[in-house]
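Might I ask for a little of your time on a matter of protein folding? Here, with my thanks, is the record as I have it:
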Amino acid sequence: MTDSKKKYMLMHKNISVAEMELDEASCAISAIGQVLDERHVPVGIPVKKAMIDRSALNEWWKGRAIPASRAGIKSALVELNLTTTQKLLEKCLGLSLSDQYWICPLDSTISWSQVNFFDNMFSDDVGNILFGQGSSSEHMSLMSPDNTSDGWLKKKWKIIDGKRCLMKGGSGATQQEPYNEVLASRIMERLGIPHVKYSLLVENDYPYSVCEDFITPQTDLISAWYIMQTIKKQNHASVYQHYLNCCEAQGIPGIRESLDRMMVLDYLIVNEDRHQNNFGVVRNAETLVYMGAAPLFDSGTALWFDKPTAMIGTKAKISCKPFKSSHEEQIKLVSSFDWLDLNSLSGIEEELRELVRGSLFIDEARCDALCKALKDRVKMLSGIVNSPHNNYPVDNFRVIKRESSVIQLPR
């Protein structure tokens, strides 16, 4: 460790993980000292001969910060008098509402119970500034989980009726993402897919999706990306198979079934951005035992959200992630449709129509096009499921039994 005032202990709740040093100018990790508990090093970060890979840990640390692509972040940084979002990360000790990692100054006696955002109040200042509302307090506080929120859409955490809830906005002329988020959760409710429930909030005529945090003080959300760093990918293995291999090696239950459900949802809503950081798994932060797949969340970039009305439902190429570049190819990876009852989606297009009623951004023509396209997607999936070339195994009991370990996440 070099002489510097920016020395911290990387913590996992109350567990001291490793000494580390932050560069004063960039807030990047400039040095890593003694590793005190290898078991609690963030998942996917290599540790060899009691030494943490500094480059990998730096990427993990930087990944906790608000991305530079976030809508309105440049003007927000000017108002906050900061040069980078990395500075915000340090101001809140790296605390998040997605896991239990944080940094404690080496000369401090503070504990996780005193500072974590699950049990303690936090400032609205950063969230309000990110929403273009300015700070309401004379003495601005940067102690906020908004400093560690990811994604490019405008968002902020709020405590509503004692619950930690995430508000997320839309983009462009249609502001469609919040409506998509709510619709996706209603589709999953009908299909019995474990998911995060979203509701719609309209504030100053703009729509926002609102959901409760599904991570608790006892759990960590670990993205698929970091699970996939736990073992070396074999050259012949696809990304899909590699993820399955990694989860199997980690002893994570029910993953194939959860991926089946994710790919079905994404086919139905034509999701364009199911990247490796917006799905993953949940583990117990204290025992480090994996509980299963995380409930599905973050499904707003769907239903031709950024396309003109004339392109809705057309055969124009729509990008697809994370396993194939087209939904037509990705749906072929589904191992079983036995759990799927498409009859339960009867009338879902009218639920969408009611959802967007009164929107200043989605006019009647766009609404009609979306409803027809959604109905067509259900028909198209029905054709795939009932195709004579569909040789999916019938093993309903196995799927339901495994899925039970995914649904019972602690609240």
Remarks:
- The two ends are 40 Å apart (CA to CA).
- Residues 217-407 form a domain with the Phosphatidylinositol 3-kinase Catalytic Subunit; Chain A, Domain 5 fold (CATH 1.10.1070).
- Residues 393-411 have pLDDT under 50 and may be disordered.
